[in-house]
């Protein structure tokens, strides 16, 4: 008669056969998966997208003080009309691109002139004039720079004071969307 091996109770036989992971091991694995997923989301938000609060009324009425904006950090090719996040060294500002590399910015008694053409800005509700202090005009925007202004022209600290901004060192990205935080 052949002899059969019968394992003793509690002995599952060779390693891994029939053994179930403990509840503690399952919970640890779940916590690890959640931590990895949250870490991935944080990395994406930190390096690809940015979140900023509108600090003042300089972009009113398009963006109001307290609104949140989501911007895309990897987009550095701007066009006139884009709203971008500018880091002026002290704080983040939101500004509209008015002119790009090669454009000449000037002012006449009628308003903003770009490349010799008076600009009809239908969404700007205040008069666009140069500041008495700041840069001299006309100014030609250099390669790798943009000329930016706030929509609320009298209340905006912008390129009329500090000149064109360098894209690589002074801009953080292009605004994708705004989330209203007040007056719902």
Describe this structure in words.
The chain has 184 residues and is an alpha+beta fold. Helices cover 18% and strands 29% of the residues. It contains 3 helices and 11 strands. The chain has helices at residues 23-47, 159-162, 167-170; strands spanning 49-53, 68-72, 83-87, 92-100, 104-108, 111-114, 117-118, 139-140, 145-149, 165-166, 171-179. The strands form 2 sheets. The chain has a 7-stranded antiparallel beta sheet with strand order 1-2-11-3-4-9-10. The chain has a 4-stranded antiparallel beta sheet with strand order 7-6-5-8, with no helix packed on it. The longest helix has 25 residues, at 23-47.
Write the layout of secondary structure elements.
Blueprint: H1 23-47, E1 49-53, E2 68-72, E3 83-87, E4 92-100, E5 104-108, E6 111-114, E7 117-118, E8 139-140, E9 145-149, H2 159-162, E10 165-166, H3 167-170, E11 171-179
Antiparallel strand pairs: 1-2, 2-11, 3-4, 3-11, 4-9, 5-6, 5-8, 6-7, 9-10
Helix % is: 10-25%
Which structural class do the helices and strands define? alpha+beta
Percent strand: 25-35%
What best-fitting shape do the alpha-carbon axes yield?
elongated
Poorly predicted runs of 5 or more residues: none
Summarize the structure.
The chain is of the alpha+beta class. Helix content is 18%, strand content 29%.
How would you describe this structure in keywords?
seven-stranded antiparallel beta sheet, 184 residues, 29% strand, 11 strands, 18% helix, four-stranded antiparallel beta sheet, alpha+beta, 3 helices
């Amino acid at each position: 008669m052949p002899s059969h091996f019968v394992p003793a109770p509690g002995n599952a036989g060779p390693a891994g056969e029939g053994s179930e992971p403990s509840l503690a091991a399952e919970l640890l694995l779940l916590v690890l998966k959640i931590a990895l997923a949250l870490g991935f989301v944080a990395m994406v938000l930190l390096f690809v997208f940015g979140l900023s609060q509108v600090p003042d009324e300089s972009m009113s009425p398009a963006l109001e003080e307290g609104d949140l904006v989501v911007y895309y950090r990897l987009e550095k090719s701007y066009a006139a009309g884009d709203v971008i996040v500018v880091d002026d060294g002290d704080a983040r500002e939101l500004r509209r691109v008015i002119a790009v590399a090669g454009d000449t910015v000037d002012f006449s008694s009628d308003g903003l002139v770009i490349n010799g053409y008076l600009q009809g800005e239908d969404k700007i509700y205040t008069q666009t004039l140069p500041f008495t202090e700041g840069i001299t005009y006309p100014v030609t925007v250099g390669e790798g720079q943009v000329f930016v202004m706030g929509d609320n022209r009298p209340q905006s600290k912008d390129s009329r004071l500090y000149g064109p901004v360098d894209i690589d060192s002074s801009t953080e990205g292009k605004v994708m969307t705004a989330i209203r935080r007040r007056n719902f």
